[in-house]
Amino acid sequence: MADIGEVVRRLQLNAPRGGPDEVSQLVARAAPAIDASEIVIYLADYTQTLLVPLLGAGLDRDQLPIETTLAGRAFTTLAIQRAPDNPDRVWVPLLLGCERMGVLEIVSPAAVDETMDAPAWEVAVNVAQILVNRRLYGDVVERMRRRMPMQVAAEIVWGLLPPLTFATDDLVVTAILEPCYDVGGDIFDYALNEDVLSVGLFDTCGHGIKASTLASLVVSAYRNARRCGLDLVDTAISIDRWVRSEHPNFFATGLLIELDRQTGRLSMINAGHPGAMLLRDGKAIRELPGPTALPLGLGHLTPRRPRVHVEDLHPGDRILAYTDGITDARSAEGEQFGLDRLVDFVNRALNDGLPSPETMRRLVRAVVGYQDDKLEDDATALFVEWRPPHLPLAHLRDLAALRP
């Protein structure tokens, strides 16, 4: 009989005593407590195309393609998978909140019984927490996730990014960034403070170290303004002044978004950035207006303050934001990926009912494939979804009546 409490106690008590390279052995030693012979951690690589085993002593596993394996299906669908021809093995998504880290392989004679699913989920949640807590103390997790050397410009950007996915009962934010090993100019950030979700997506001019250095300044200035309590307009002005002060010959485009989770009121400044798409009922219905300000760093060229566009969302609405590396991607024949193809892809993904992180993963894989795996520019896409369970239809009508 599986003793899940014993497994959790063993993992939590012993994890702080070792480094991140010992996590796989710690997890393997806990296997007998849930009647398993083996528990193996697989981590998604940076491109989210492979699951790479984090192996302890005595274990031998190959990396697994996400697109064509049961392990990959567990990762993409966020659901436990088991093979009819191999019933003693289950694949469990490795999640921290909604952040997809990889999968857990559990080998046990009891795996055929679906009553094992709940203990398997609990083990996976605890393993994910341990990985997040311990990976900062060593490089084994980072090394395992990298299929090639990462350039310094990309190292700077990835070190600044928040988790790719964040979710609550009523909000989802998820993003994806390519090329993983050589990014420089694209960066994003988000924060939830009480009822306001703040999101920033930025694309700095240039490439390499100069672009990533500017990206570092932009996202740091954004966080500083937000944490100082500045409103959206003053936040844009603050970032603009810092860019002009420290990088007078450069600029960054950006989207600055605030979403009130109680009312669904979205406020946005578009600083010379590609527009954002409003998605509703499984389809893209229109592009949000923009730009409403000059690119960040060029604000001195106009006396006008940045203008805020306000949009009242419906429950279930999504905002798709992206950088021009998505729409400007070109095929071997020179044809742009373009906005129409982007909208068509997103519509099909939404109609397929995919989780938002999987939609983002497939979108970027489609863009990369469109350019034969050779992106000319960073390609970043970001979803914001508002899905309030607490607002009945009548209350929504009342809110609409109160709005100007």
Automatic annotation (TrEMBL):
- Origin: domain of life: Bacteria
Matching entries from InterPro entries are given as: Bact_Sigma-Reg, PPM-type-like_dom_sf, PPM-type_phosphatase-like_dom
Q: Which key words tag this protein in UniProt?
A: Hydrolase
Q: Which residues form the PPM-type phosphatase domain?
A: 136-386
Give GO MF terms, alphabetically.
phosphatase activity
Stated name of the protein: Phosphatase
Q: In which organism is this protein found?
A: Micromonospora arida
Organism phylogeny: Bacteria, Bacillati, Actinomycetota, Actinomycetes, Micromonosporales
